[in-house]
Amino acid sequence: MLTTGNAAMLLAFDIAADAIAEHDDWHSHEHMPERLSIPGFLRGSRWIACSGTPRYFVMYEVQSLAVLASAPYLERLDNPTPWTAKMMRSYVGMRRALCDVAASFGAGIGGSALLIRFAPGEGRSAALHGWLAGEVLPRLAGRPGIAGAHLFAASLAAPMTREQQIRGRDAGLASAVLVTGYDGDAVAALAGDELGAERFAAHGAPAADRAGGSYRLAYSLTAAEAAGR
What angle do CA 46, 167, 3 make, to 5 degrees? Predict the structure, then answer.
């Protein structure tokens, strides 16, 4: 299972090449600790692409979807620090989704991940999510090399805020599957097998609306760790 929360914010984006080093410094030492100080935020993790795009995937696990519409969270989004305001201008192609955890299997987080972003065809969402949650992900979670397999469904619209105004309007994503594990090859192989484009298309997610990439964990922080800094 993911942390005790039942919701998450998923972000996928690139950073201007000349700002990558500063971004990682800011994100580790200011931004993620700030986010983890907000009531209801449980854990943040930053991942770097090994294959596929975009370069970054960030996940914040939260107690409930309501946390992502709470006054403390929106207050931070509308009042970025000077360093945050500077870094927002370096973001490229931000996709951001406020999600329910629709299904979660396994325990812990492995250092390797496969992220599949997809959009079910019209009227196919229930069947597609049912296939993933009922057949595919439970099997994957117990496989050698795999730690956990999780399904996310975007459930809350993200309002326009000052941070988003600076970096430009975010795109969204409808649904996502995240598989993490301790064997990078085993995790990556799923993109051409159980989680391959043909399997998704057969169950209602057109290939044009499916994208994926393999990632490695770069940084993780819990709320308790942030409070003890």
Answer: 30
Is residue 88 a contact partner of residue 170, using CB atoms and an 8 Å limit? no
Residue type, 3: T
Spatial CA neighbour of 206 closest among 229, 183, 175, 171: 175
Question: Average pLDDT in the 204-224 region?
Answer: 94
Domain boundaries, the chain: 7-227
Please write down the long-range contacts of 130-136, taking CB distance under 8 Å and 24 or more positions apart: 131/203, 132/103, 132/177, 133/102, 133/103, 136/194, 136/195
Interstrand relation of 56-62 and 112-118 (parallel, antiparallel or unpaired): unpaired
Q: Check if the beta carbon of residue 207 is closer than 8 Å to that of residue 118.
A: no
Domain 7-227: state its class.
Answer: alpha beta
pTM of the model: 0.95
Beta strands in the chain (DSSP E): 7-15, 41-51, 56-62, 91-106, 112-118, 146-156, 175-181, 210-222
